């Protein structure tokens, strides 16, 4: 079986989400680097893989996918024989809870955390610009409200979807990993269950491996 190809960059949050899934299931894969500064992601070859001109994209034979959360589910389903079950599709209630917390990640957590990371890390490091403090401050307020909900949830179950590690937990990794190298990492200190959850998931071998390819390693 030919290895699946991932077009992206290990430093990219959405690429890292997919790489984590591939590492968790122990899949063989080929990471094809996309040259963002030269605009390769907006060229015809990559637009054929991802019509939004973004990374990542996955190619598995004739199948071409974009959107990191959808790609992640594909990878976990394709390699379910690995014994790593991060979707719990054999159990209606558990799989529904995985979906609930995956939606919370993309609709609540991500919109709050990503502007903080973008302004305080990407703007100065990648573009040599000055962070917009007003955006950071308002996003921090939003993030605190989300973290209050997470704290309540994680005081009742070890992981977000229940007492099992799932794609819902994994999906939070890339942006949180970057928040932790900004001056705003201390926001987690007020949420002890969230902090313990973060320490637990970052101790996984797949996380250590993918993390090593990201900024600030
Ligand atoms: C977002 C992809 C994205 O923003 C997904 O795959 O989950 N919802 C999509 N990709 C960024 C890199 S950060 O990982 C990207 O390609 N940015 C360049 C651009 O938008 O031009």
TrEMBL record:
GO MF term list: glutathione binding; glutathione transferase activity
Coiled coil: none
Known EC number: 2.5.1.18
UniProt KW keywords: Transferase
GO biological process: glutathione metabolic process; response to herbicide
A UniProt-annotated Pfam family: GST_N
Residue stretches making up the GST N-terminal domain: 2-83
Keyword Cell division recorded: no
Secretion signal, residue range per the UniProt entry: none
Annotated ranges, domain GST C-terminal: 91-217
Catalytic reaction equation(s): RX + glutathione = an S-substituted glutathione + a halide anion + H(+)
Keyword Glycosyltransferase: no
Name recorded for this polypeptide: glutathione transferase
Organism: Rhynchospora pubera
């Amino acid at each position: 079986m030919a290895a699946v190809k991932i077009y992206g960059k290990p430093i990219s949050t959405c690429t890292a989400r997919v790489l984590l899934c591939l590492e968790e299931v122990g899949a063989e894969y080929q990471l094809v680097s996309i040259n963002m500064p030269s605009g390769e992601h907006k060229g015809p070859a990559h637009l054929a893989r991802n019509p939004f001109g973004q990374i990542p994209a996955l190619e598995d034979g004739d199948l071409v996918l974009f959107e990191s959360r959808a790609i992640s589910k594909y990878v976990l389903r394709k390699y379910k024989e690995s014994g790593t079950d991060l979707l719990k599709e054999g159990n209606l209630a558990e799989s529904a809870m995985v979906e609930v917390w995956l939606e919370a990640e993309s609709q609540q957590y991500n919109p709050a955390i990503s502007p903080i990371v973008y302004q305080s890390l990407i703007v100065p490091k990648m573009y040599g610009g000055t962070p917009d403090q007003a955006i950071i401050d308002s996003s921090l307020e939003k993030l605190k409200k989300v973290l209050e909900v997470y704290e309540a949830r994680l005081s009742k179950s070890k992981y977000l979807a229940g007492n099992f590690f799932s794609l819902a937990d994994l999906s939070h990794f890339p942006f949180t990993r970057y928040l932790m190298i900004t001056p705003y990492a201390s926001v987690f200190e007020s949420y002890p269950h969230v902090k313990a959850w973060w320490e637990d998931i970052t101790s996984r071998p797949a996380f250590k491996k993918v993390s090593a390819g990201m900024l600030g390693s």
